[in-house]
Amino acid sequence: MHNILVAEDEDILRRNLIFILNSSGYSAVPARTTAEGIALLKKRNFDVVVTDLVMPVNGGSELISFVYENCSETAVIIITAYPTTDSAINAVKQGVSDYFTKPFKTEDLLESIKRVIEEKKEVPFTWEKLSSFGVTKREESILRLILEEGAAENKEIAERLSIKSTTVKQHMENLCGKFGTKNRTSLLSAVVRALRK
Question: pTM surpassing 0.85?
């Protein structure tokens, strides 16, 4: 069953979306604020985040940024009552899968969610795409171990490639520089996006 997070401050719409999604065979979880949404994303994996852009305290854009920095496998769909050209352009730049203006047809949203989940299954990693970032064969081997085989620790990666842990650490630092990221999580998110483009 696919997990969907619905971040929406409007109570009636949030409840309706949760009911419709759960009735459609998804496991939908509500969040009333960006902070609630981020807390849920830290606890479990979601296939899709459906989020409003305008919410109290911190807007949906903070939630979207969190998804792209920390949840590389999660797709984002925006729903908003206040569409602007800038917000639509920013959404596309951030890699948002779809953008709906309220009021919208729930059938359209359901169709979009279904399509996004199918696309995730169908799009294989194309490792050749990393050459444009200057990724070396050794760096690609490290990334493959992490992304395809779930190797998480530098020590494990080092043992499997017969190199030192310090060498793995240095390669990871080099990769962060090549992808303009600050840590391993954001690096892996950037790599996944590059592989799927």
Answer: no
